[in-house]
Amino acid sequence: SVNLLTLADGQTMPQEGFGMYKITDQSTITSSIKYAYDAGYRLFDTAQLYKNEAEIGNALTELALPREELFITTKVSEPNQGYTQTIASVKDSLKKLQLDYVNLLLIHWPIERAFFDTWAALEELKKEGLTRSIGVSNYQMIHLQYLATQAHEMPVVNQIERHPHLNQLPLIKYDRAHQIVTQAWSPLGRGTILNNPLLEKIAKKHQKSSAQIVLRWQLQSGVAFIPKSIHEARIKQNIDIYNFQLSEQEINVINELHNFTRVGKEPALVYEYNLKY
Ligand code: A2P
């Protein structure tokens, strides 16, 4: 079953969760959450940007899943950054999700505008109990270093694009040294990497699918990860990774597939930070 990671603020977070990007229609949302819950997922990841918070709220209510078992993440979108906008938008997210609190609230992307004010709003929302933990997404080292110059508390999670074509090993090392859990989005590279012959060879040896090999690599790398699928068989398959182990050599082979290919956008480097910092 899924490991629990202890975050720097003392909260626990399932290492594996269910990503909900690009799942938007109500019936697909309800069915995928049901498949995922029944398969053992407890972490459900959404964002204001995904435009599915209301549908997820309806599904959680309809399925009557016990709130205390669930770990719900949402993220503040770029247009909603800024102190008052962030507070208002998170209250709106909670209304849509039909929840009193989320477990984890993230700043979705680093942007120059309202960089510190948005973080201050997250600190305040945590104080008010509207989120248990606060973190960031798509932050590079420079953003974390800049944030540290004014933050009262630091992010406990940094959710970033990570898969075998973008292994992020330096950032993971930096996060770990600063008590930040790295959480991988698009842990399967949106499916683009799955027919790599080296992965297929490892998969054949373990009698698993390439997707399971990649997720097991994520697990053994010590990061959290949130695969997405709308299909019951894949949802089950993606959490059926706890009964085998990759060797150190296999982990290294997968690390070497790194070729800097992103499936999402590149986080803005925000050159002014470099000037100011
Ligand atoms: P689908 O939702 O149709 O199953 P990521 O989590 O890296 O963003 O990857 C998600 C993509 O990978 C989706 O297109 C999803 O398609 C596909 N996918 C998810 N799980 C598997 C799997 N076990 N085997 C093959 N493709 C998968």
From TrEMBL:
Organism: Limosilactobacillus fastidiosus
Annotated family: Belongs to the aldo/keto reductase family.
Residues reported to bind substrate: H108
SUPFAM superfamilies linked: NAD(P)-linked oxidoreductase
A Pfam family per the record: Aldo_ket_red
A GO term for molecular function: oxidoreductase activity, acting on the CH-OH group of donors, NAD or NADP as acceptor
Site (Lowers pKa of active site Tyr): K75
Active site positions: Y50 (proton donor)
Protein name: Aldo/keto reductase
Keyword NADP among UniProt keywords: yes
Domain NADP-dependent oxidoreductase: 27-257
UniProt KW keywords: NADP, Oxidoreductase
Lineage, broadest ranks: Bacteria, Bacillati, Bacillota, Bacilli, Lactobacillales
Keyword Oxidoreductase appears in the UniProt entry: yes
